Fold:
Amino acid sequence: MGSLLDQYHPSVPDLDALLQQLNLTCTRRTFIGSGASGSVLRLTLIDGSTLIAKLSTSTDLTLEARGLELLANHSRLPVPKPIHATRAVLLMQDMPGASGASGEAEEHAAALLADLHAVTEPQARYGLDFDNLIGPLPQRNTWAPSWPAFFRDHRLLPMTHAAAREGAISAALATRLERLASILDERLPGNPPATLIHGDIWSGNVLSHDGRITALLDPSPYYAHAEVELAFITLFSTFGQRFFGRYGERRPIDPDFWTTRRHLYNIYPLLVHARLFGESYAAQIDRTLDLLL
Structure:
């Protein structure tokens, strides 16, 4: 089966009309990279300043702009300021730093995310008032008063069924995932604090410099159990022990997170990766279920 990622390499839209509309003169366009949700360019303007342009023909980039504005308005997380957004083009602030973080920057990340996770939804609901994306894939954020119900109905089951339809996972594995979904009330806390999360903290979305986090990019925010964020950080080793040590000083981490819940929560991003990058992630999901069922 071909990877879904093959469908997400858009041609670069013509920026000239948009730049003219905004009265911006670009003297250089530098290609930075491309991924599942589009291509990224650095634009050098006539005054020597720079902007980042994200371009896509397959995803709605206004959703990313809304996520950036949400985080900027409700936290001190360093995120790029959106300059202009359409479905196909997002112009935003160019943030300094290099990808990844280590040492003191991990401790700074811990402080930033502990503060972010102290931001709670006023009505103690889980979700968000608009749907968004995880990578290029739709992510439903319909409000729910129960955390297990939200994770079951808007995360685990929709991604399971989409992956099964596309052949990214087998019918047998989908059945095992449905079994897990049926017992989430026993495995997850019913009403943990509904905290704001970034939603996609992996090293490629982290910029740092001189022991400080300078930017956290490409958010996929919603109000959730904060452990979802921590679990994803462990999945691809975005940060290490210095992060978790400092974070735990600010917000103690339940031992059940390490033994059980981080594995459970990481099934969702593993399903995302199975859909985008092919069936190799299905085996990891299967092994995870061996721990949980």
The first strand starts at residue 26 and ends at 35. The radius of gyration is 19 Å. The chain has a mean pLDDT of 93.
